[in-house]
């Protein structure tokens, strides 16, 4: 099948991400990668749980003293909404509506950037208010590594969306780039899945004690 | 070389049907989004309310698991057919993940 | 094609290999670099054995000895055994399932170059101030305290090559799931493909914990984190768990493909269908599954408590069941077969008792109470060398002889092959059998020297003599390879005459598109089925048409090179001798430049469309006529 072929919304296949063999491979390969990422984040969560509140002296702040639930709530809402907007983007991708897909992806990127801004502020806050740094204790190392790995995933996801948009902005949809958009949105959802566990396990359970 | 997906033999014929189905699905997505927001709210409220952790922990974990299921099956389309292999590998990953976390909360010496 | 290749100059060939995305050429790259690292690791082993040949020896210093034993283990596992297996997987698996290439040719190349640069980085430590010296397990309390940059080389080198391994694992999984020829159902896949499949799944789930462990170690050593520093609230058991959650599946990642190679060899040279195919498949999957449930048997003496020890002991012993199923199936494959004792078959036959011996000591070690006695003695050393050499290395040597004609189009000399076999087998048992007794007598592993008059002198000497036998065997193999390639006697499709699977139905080496027409698979051992019905080749499953092929690319090399450069920056931005005025202002810029090279290469890859090209039907027809003599 010619990946450059031009389509109309009527000839556009139902699952454009899986229509070519390349697309199918990409789709499956990326899901497998997410299976591996699950274990990667599990290892980070496990390390965090083992080192939570493990500090060298009683003058160090613990999880319950620091975490800002309102801030975390806003971040959760931002990321959750960005997950919905990327679903909208994929909805329009499947309907062969490139303009609307682009708009929703731009909204997704905006929400992702806002999330990232809050996260940076949050880290800054902990460092300056509580002297809770990457090197101050094992707890600090584990916290910043887990949440930072997630943040790095957000950065990669944003960079990915942006590159895709720049590259394809004047080209419209075809069977070559449709799987790429789809896989990038899977990645974005996975980032949200990880965040669900971060706000539950790190912040909420951290505040309970 | 590429093998055509057989779900839509002739896209022109069932175009209307597909559009309708997609719209319906989008509605499902919005519903699951609302559910996720709702569950997040419950989770935050449960913590703010200051119940004992024996009650809060299970609630939080169940809510998180439910949210993730919604993400995976609706937002990430795992409810569609053709996701058997995906599910096999994802759940294998979840199993290893579970054992890893279990280990680190039980047998790391403290 | 081959005539064109011969006319090319050296630089053109070099460029071809630097940019290739062809799984058969990548296989040769894996085989060559894996073979090189195998020799390096072998030399390290020889130095270890020379040091231990006589009591109170001073052949190497204590510090150098620690570096040697660390690098021997690390090199052999990560840089020799795995790449060599990847070499055979790349060369054979796409052919066995009737595919024209792997699912992600570009990533295949990237996986290789990441491994290669990681391996080179790790070994450069010898020339840049000392190799890692905390054992291949690099337990945290020891490795955090290790001075110099040795452990940094270990962490960064393995991080880079580990990323390559993960990529290759995903690639094989997708290839096997999505790229099988028409009729090639899961339960018709050859055992080598099945074992590659399971091993790749293990890679997918086992390498992320290693990645995390290495990151934590990197953060601790290079960026001031405190994961393993107990005085800051850290916990060194975390490293042990992460390492072994990876480490135990890792040994199954090594042994399962070797099992697969042996399964092919037993069936081929017994001229019989593999006995109990379905049970073999099930046993392979079960071993893979159980492989994740047993890692703490490496940590019985850590003090995890009797409950944990009991659970892991029982799970470990359970693995003997599927392994036993396999052993019996191999023997029953031979039973009543028309066996020809070629070199690969000799290795396969010798593998059964050798590996079983290692398995039996494994069950002994799995008994947690008894393990308190065996732990950290030469008994453990003997055990894992029995399973790894008796299983993996014999499998690699067997595979080298068995698949050499398919990969290179020439046949290794059988006489020299058998000499290698006997020297290696005798040397292997002489070296390691006696180490069981050394261990039971109380000789600890990893010691630099031992004192005379404790009953350890003679066994150690015997062990060293055995090691020399193995060294000579490898030299004979190298001579064999050189002679074979210089003579360059070309062979046909099925040089062993009894090939059963698809790879033997096409020329040796196969054309770059593998199959002109994808074959129709009508059952297990498809080529054998056709042969039994008097056909000389496979029935095609599709009309002759244009073939889509991927373009070569230099980008994987550049991406990996960027990480290689960045690793130097990451390492030297910490100075171990700051008090002596050692500082490297260039380190941080180098780190940034390296990362920019990698990210830039990734951006180029995603911004530049790569649609590949088509081989036209007419050219395929021409090729056929050209090939006909």
UniProtKB/TrEMBL annotation, chain A:
Signal peptide: none
GO cellular component: plasma membrane
Keyword Transmembrane recorded: yes
Superkingdom of the organism of origin: Bacteria
GO biological process, one term: aerobic electron transport chain
Keyword Transmembrane found: yes
The family this protein is said to belong to: Belongs to the cytochrome c oxidase subunit 3 family.
Name by which UniProt lists this protein: Cytochrome (Ubi)quinol oxidase subunit III
TrEMBL record, chain B:
Transmembrane in keyword set: yes
Main localization category: membrane
Superkingdom, taxonomy of origin: Bacteria
Membrane topology summary: Multi-pass membrane protein
Transmembrane segments: 30-49, 55-76, 88-109
Localization annotation: Cell membrane
Entry keywords, A to Z: Cell membrane, Membrane, Transmembrane, Transmembrane helix
Descriptive protein name: Cytochrome c oxidase subunit IVB
Source species: Jeotgalibacillus proteolyticus
TrEMBL record, chain C:
A molecular function (GO) term: metal ion binding
The keyword Transit peptide appears for this protein: no
GO cellular component: plasma membrane
Superkingdom, taxonomy of origin: Bacteria
Cited function: Cytochrome c oxidase is the component of the respiratory chain that catalyzes the reduction of oxygen to water. Subunits 1-3 form the functional core of the enzyme complex. CO I is the catalytic subunit of the enzyme. Electrons originating in cytochrome c are transferred via the copper A center of subunit 2 and heme A of subunit 1 to the bimetallic center formed by heme A3 and copper B.
Entry's localization field: Cell membrane
Pathway(s) this gene product operates in, as recorded in its UniProt entry: Energy metabolism; oxidative phosphorylation
Keyword Transmembrane: yes
Membrane topology: Multi-pass membrane protein
Single GO biological process annotation from the record: respiratory electron transport chain
Keywords, sorted A to Z: Cell membrane, Copper, Electron transport, Heme, Iron, Membrane, Metal-binding, Respiratory chain, Translocase, Transmembrane, Transmembrane helix, Transport
EC number(s) reported in the record: 7.1.1.9
This protein's name: Cytochrome c oxidase subunit 1
Known catalytic reactions: 4 Fe(II)-[cytochrome c] + O2 + 8 H(+)(in) = 4 Fe(III)-[cytochrome c] + 2 H2O + 4 H(+)(out)
Organism: Jeotgalibacillus proteolyticus
Family under the similarity heading: Belongs to the heme-copper respiratory oxidase family.
